[in-house]
Amino acid sequence: MTVIIDLDKCGHISNCPGQGLCIQLCDQKALIEEDNDVKVIDENCNDCDLCLMNCPNQAISKS
């Protein structure tokens, strides 16, 4: 499945109450910071759902 970041809900890393918690939790490096936003590297994702379960803004979903 593909991880989708809703950038309107995310509010950029600088405004995130978790200060980029999704990136910090991702051991696979499927989420990275790029220009103060979260970028998804699909081929690195192992569908663990840690990012989805821990996003304080509920900005992460899967399709």
TrEMBL record:
Taxonomy, superkingdom: Archaea
Pfam families the UniProt entry points to: Fer4 (PF00037)
Annotated 4Fe-4S ferredoxin-type domain residues: 36-63
GO molecular function: oxidoreductase activity
InterPro entries: 4Fe4S_Fe-S-bd, 4Fe4S_Fe_S_CS
Coiled-coil ranges per UniProt: none
Protein name in the entry: Electron transport complex subunit RsxB
